[in-house]
Design goal:
Blueprint (H helix, E strand, L loop, with lengths): L5 E7 L12 E6 L5 H9 L17 E6 L3 E5 L10 H17 L3 E9 L6 H13 L3 E6 L6 H16 L8 E3 L8 H20 L3
Parallel strand pairs: 2-4, 2-5, 5-6, 6-7
Antiparallel strand pairs: 1-3, 3-4
Length: 206
């Protein structure tokens, strides 16, 4: 897929404020400081589309971006930000949960995890909650340029082993780097494949 246009649509404090649209939505979420904004900017090749910050927890709203006039990329607040107040954490959790469970346009959720770390309890708990709710998602390993090939293989294997303890079928995984651009084509081509299938279904081709 070639990204020809990527434009900011709106920021919403609650799911009811999200755009009224039938376009498919692909949402990105992860623990704070996982490199979500950098990954979104790498995918769209638009350096300032998603606001990056050295301070975790920058994204506090549901941010919609229109891609190629055909689908929405959604930047969701991060979870597990320990330095946020209890009230703020509760608000972020409510925003995330309401969007994931109520937004009909949500086609797939990309869950970002830091490839440098061992499986984190907060990530595994979030992933398991998606499974319990029947939410379609894929796993995206970020910051892979910080690791050698051997360490990356070990860390991704550890994650899959941890998931295998509760999942019969493991989710689809992508290996990415905002620095090198690794995984960009894989992610965008996967989105394009889903969009093509949805279009065919809508037109009665399948």
């Amino acid at each position: 897929m070639s990204i020809k246009s990527a434009t900011f649509v709106c920021s919403s404090a609650k799911v009811a404020q999200c755009p009224k649209s039938n376009l498919p939505e692909y949402a990105f979420i992860g623990r704070s400081n996982v490199g979500k904004s950098s990954l979104i900017n790498m995918l769209t090749r638009h350096g300032g589309l998603a606001k990056t910050s050295s301070t975790p927890g920058k994204t506090q709203l549901i941010n919609h971006f229109l891609i190629n006039e055909a689908w929405h990329l959604v930047d969701l607040p991060g979870y597990g930000y320990a330095k946020a107040s209890k009230t703020a954490r509760s608000r972020f959790a409510a925003i995330i949960t309401d969007y994931i469970r109520q937004r009909d346009a949500l086609t797939l959720l990309f869950v970002l995890v830091d490839s440098r770390l061992e499986p984190q309890a907060v990530d595994l708990a979030f992933i398991n909650s998606l499974g319990a709710a029947g939410v379609p998602f894929a796993l995206v390993f970020t910051k892979t340029d910080k690791l050698g090939a051997g360490a990356l293989q070990r860390n991704t294997a550890h994650y899959k082993e941890a998931l295998a303890e509760t999942w019969e079928e493991l989710p689809l995984t992508f290996v990415t780097s905002a620095e090198s651009g690794a995984g960009r084509d894989d992610l965008l081509n996967y989105i394009e494949t889903i969009n093509t299938t949805l279009q065919h279904d809508h037109n009665g081709f399948l």
